[in-house]
Design a protein that fits this description.
The complex is a heterodimer. Chain A is mainly β. Chain A is 0% helix and 55% strand. In chain A, strands 2, 4, 5, 6, 9, 10 and 11 form a seven-stranded mixed sheet that branches. Chain A has a four-stranded antiparallel sheet with strand order 1-3-8-7, with no helix packed on it. Classes of the chains: A mainly beta, B mainly beta.
Chain lengths: 114, 115
C-alpha cells in the first residue's frame, strides 16, 4: 500500500544512454513533482505536473522529458545521459486542491552514470 | 524568489543532548513551512509542518519547531536526542499560492548522534 512508488530503485548506466524512471502515486493526488538530490544532498525541484499538465519546468536540460500518462503517474525520461546526471531522483505528490498542503515523497531512484 | 538557509551543515551530539537546527527563509509573503527527515538510505519523511495558527508546532518523534515571522525563522528542536535520530534534516518552504506550490529546500543538516 505504498503511497508514492518509484522504479527502479537503483539504475546504473553508461554515458550516452537513454533511461526512464517511473513514478506512481495511489493517493488520488492531482499534482506530482520530480526533484533531484545531488551528491551533497541538495534537493532541487525539476518539474511539476497538475492533472497531466506541466506547471513548473525549472532550469533543466531538455534531455530531461517528463511524461504524465494520467494523473497517477509521472515518468522521467532522460536522453544522452551525462556524468553530472548522477543523483538521487525523488518523485513527490500533493493533493493539488489549492491552499496549503503536504508533499509526499517516493523512495527515490539512485542513478549512477559511468 | 524564495530561498532557504540551514546554517548548520553538520551537527554531532551525544545521546540525551538537546537539539536545535536553524532554518531561515527569504520570502515576503505568506509561507508554509516544513521539516523533512531523511534517514540513511531512505526517502524524505515529513517531521512537522506549519500552515497557520499556533507558531509552535509539534511533530513526530518528539520534534517541535517554532515559526518566528519577524525573524523569518523556523528552527527545529528536540529536548533529548536519541541515536536513532541520526539522519539528514531538511527545512523547506512553500510560498503559498505560487504557481505550482513547489517546495524550496535548504541545504540540509546532517545530524549524527553518538550512543
Amino acid at each position: 500500500d505504498t503511497a508514492v512508488s518509484q522504479t527502479p530503485k537503483y539504475l546504473v548506466t553508461q554515458m550516452g544512454n537513454d533511461k526512464s524512471i517511473k513514478c506512481e502515486q495511489n493517493l488520488g493526488h492531482d499534482t506530482m513533482y520530480w526533484y533531484k538530490q545531488d551528491s551533497k544532498k541538495f534537493l532541487k525541484i525539476m518539474f511539476s505536473y497538475n492533472n497531466k499538465e506541466l506547471i513548473i519546468n525549472e532550469t533543466v536540460p531538455n534531455r530531461f522529458s517528463p511524461k504524465s500518462p494520467d494523473k497517477a503517474h509521472l515518468n522521467l525520461h532522460i536522453n544522452s545521459l551525462e556524468l553530472g546526471d548522477s543523483a538521487v531522483y525523488f518523485c513527490a505528490s500533493r493533493s493539488g486542491t489549492g491552499g496549503p498542503d503536504t508533499q509526499y515523497f517516493g523512495p527515490g531512484t539512485r542513478l549512477t552514470v559511468l | 524568489a524564495q530561498s532557504v538557509s540551514q546554517h548548520n551543515h553538520h551537527v554531532i551530539l551525544s545521546e540525551a543532548a538537546s537539539l536545535e537546527l536553524g532554518c531561515n527563509y527569504s520570502y515576503g509573503g505568506t509561507v508554509n513551512l516544513f521539516w523533512y527527515v531523511q534517514y540513511p538510505g531512505q526517502h524524505l519523511q515529513l517531521l512537522l509542518k506549519y500552515f497557520s495558527g499556533d507558531p509552535l508546532v509539534k511533530g513526530i518523534k518528539g520534534f517541535e519547531a517554532e515559526f518566528i515571522k519577524s525573524k523569518f525563522s523556523f528552527n527545529l528542536r528536540k529536548p533529548s536526542v536519541q541515536w536513532s535520530d541520526t539522519a539528514e534534516y531538511f527545512c523547506a518552504v512553500n510560498a503559498y499560492n505560487n504557481a505550482g506550490n513547489m517546495l524550496t529546500f535548504g541545504g540540509g543538516t546532517r545530524l549524527m548522534v553518538k550512543p
